[in-house]
Amino acid sequence: MVSPFLFFPGERLALSELSAACLDGLLVPLGEGFMPADAVETAWMRARSLVPLLGARWAGVRLTAAWVHGGMPTEPTRHHLQRVAKTRTRAHHVTRAVFHDVRLPPADTVSLAGIHFSTPGRSLADLARSQDEQQRAVALAWARSDPRTRREAQAWLDRHPTFPHGRRGTALLASVTADGDREAYDEVTR
User: Fold this and answer.
1) Does some domain include residue 100?
2) Would the pLDDT of 177 be above 90?
3) 33 is in which domain, residue-wise?
4) Contact at 8 Å (CB) between 141 and 173?
5) Does 189 reside within a domain?
6) Does 135 lie in the same domain as 103?
7) Which of 37, 123, 136, 139 could form a disulfide with 65 if both were Cys (CB 3.0 to 4.6 A apart)?
8) 124-158 per-position pLDDT tens digit
9) In sequence order, what are the residues at sequence separation of 6 or more whose Cβ sits closer than 8 angstroms to the Cβ of residue 85?
10) Superkingdom of the source (predicted)?
11) 23-39: per-residue pLDDT in tens?
């Protein structure tokens, strides 16, 4: 499906024409494509912009899913993709992506603009469990700004107690909950 708000190289215009439109201020890069500079960047637009990268066999996870779901304001430098297809597949040779070949269960996926992503709760749980400081910082900011997703992530970690680094994720989310309780208490007692 061709979107009137998303342009991909080779679809309607060549990469050189799209780049020239960016230089003129008419377009801005978004995901693997370009969008009009005056268009509103929605979750649908962010998801649809990743069609050339994800296709039907991969789901956006971790930082990629956080960006699409609104958990982080800027597009990640490297996208994280995890297999949703039943059969193993060869990863693309893309330098902008990290491929995780373990299959993402259907219960942990959501479809947005026809593209698969990990659910917000699973995405936040994965970021909270991560050893990478950047991912943990995103998890902390997202958990503070979105209590609903934080509760979903806590519930996901409770349902999967044997997942690697689950305690680390639970501790990060619990620290946000404790901070939130203190802030709510301070607000009430003022």
Assistant:
1) yes
2) no
3) 7-40
4) no
5) no
6) yes
7) 123
8) 999 999 999 999 999 999 999 999 999 999 999 99
9) 56, 57, 58, 103
10) Bacteria
11) 999 999 999 999 999 98
